UniProtKB/TrEMBL annotation:
The keyword Zinc-finger does not apply. This is Dihydroflavonol-4-reductase. One of its GO terms (molecular function) is oxidoreductase activity, acting on the CH-OH group of donors, NAD or NADP as acceptor. CDD domains: AR_SDR_e. It holds the Pfam family Epimerase. The keyword Oxidoreductase applies. Residues 3-255 form the NAD-dependent epimerase/dehydratase domain. Keywords: Oxidoreductase. Belongs to the NAD(P)-dependent epimerase/dehydratase family. Dihydroflavonol-4-reductase subfamily. The lineage of its organism: Eukaryota, Fungi, Dikarya, Ascomycota, Pezizomycotina.
Length: 333
């Protein structure tokens, strides 16, 4: 089918793009600049424009941002919306983060309803931030839960604004479905922290590595030789997140569903010990003795619907770490 992929140069989107092409779909991706579009074409060489092309959408939060991008011949059958607004330094959290996130999501949904009646499926990338409850976490999280943060609380600081922007953008999508009753089905994917291998050719320097892979870069560049920073997190491999998006697009069982993308927990010390074990050449970049920190959390996450409805099995930590480090070592080889 023909798919519009928004935010195509993002970390998750690059893996979604690769998988969509592998599954035989034709893809048009939105990017913020021609330079980013050309980078995507270069990373996926030898394809005719009927298989892969790009269209520029500078700011997804601008009114009618997607009205031109959504019109295509032949028409799109589905949309994978991974794009989120981009703000390096937000100071006005409501106007720089919350409203743009909501507007970006509503812009794509309104554009589809108004201009692209042939589209039957939309998958939106959300975040576990839309589900998590920092004040009183449940024993086990599932897809029925929502972060209780209010619009006012989300304006307290940058971290709260980020979490709030994810909740309110996804909530806006489900409210749109309930009120507008459009001719397409919606599914959302809500990942925890996403790391994994970078696409070959997507980076020229490790200085520009995506945030969730920074810990790997710091370890292989000896920035943690004097000690591993504490930290334990829920995680998921980017390739599994991409697989969930594409399966949600292709399977009618996903219609109307939210999916938590989570493989398990890790601590930074676990990552360091896996690197030490599998990459002898990097041993001198890491502390001689690594004390394993527990990665247990006070809550569980029910991720069973990813396997039951989407058929996605999550990779284990060792595979994800080894593949990630392999991909980063190639950048400055």
């Amino acid at each position: 089918m023909k798919v519009l992929l928004t935010g195509g140069s993002g970390f998750v989107a690059q893996h979604c793009l690769r998988l969509l092409l592998k599954h035989g779909h034709d893809v048009v991706t939105t990017v913020r600049s021609a330079e980013k579009g050309q980078q995507l074409l270069s990373a996926n060489p030898g394809l005719p424009t009927t298989k892969l092309s790009y269209v520029i959408v500078k700011d997804i939060a601008e009114p009618n941002a997607f009205d031109k991008a959504i019109i295509s011949s032949p028409p799109f059958a589905a949309v994978l919306h991974t794009a989120s607004p981009f703000h390096y330094t937000a100071t006005d959290f409501e106007n720089d983060m919350l409203k743009p996130a909501v507007n970006g999501t509503l812009n794509i949904l309104n554009a589809i309803k108004a201009h692209a009646p042939e589209i039957k499926k939309v998958v939106v990338t959300s975040s576990f931030a839309a589900i998590i409850n920092m004040q009183s976490p449940p024993e086990v999280y599932d897809e029925s839960m929502w972060n209780p943060i209010s619009w006012e609380q989300a304006q307290t600081n940058g971290a709260m604004a980020y979490v709030g922007s994810k909740k309110f953008a996804e909530k806006a999508a489900w409210d749109f479905m309930a009120v507008e009753k459009p001719g397409f089905a919606l599914a959302t994917v809500d990942p925890v922290l996403v790391f994994g291998p970078i696409m070959e050719g997507s980076l020229t320097s490790l200085n520009a590595v995506n945030t969730s892979n920074v810990v790997f870069r710091d370890m292989i560049q000896a920035r943690m030789k004097d000690g591993i920073t504490n930290g334990s997190f829920s995680w998921v491999d980017v390739r599994d997140v991409a697989a969930m998006h594409v399966a949600a697009l292709e399977k009618s069982e996903a219609d109307g569903q939210r999916f938590i993308a989570a493989a398990g927990r890790y601590s930074n010390s676990e990552i360091a010990s896996i690197i030490k074990k599998h990459f002898p050449s990097l041993q001198d970049k890491l502390p001689e003795h690594i004390e394993l920190e527990s990665s247990k959390a006070g809550y569980g996450i029910d991720n069973s619907s990813a396997e039951k409805l989407l058929g996605v099995k999550f990779r284990d930590l060792a595979h994800a770490v080894v593949d990630t480090v392999d991909s980063l070592l190639k950048v400055e080889a």
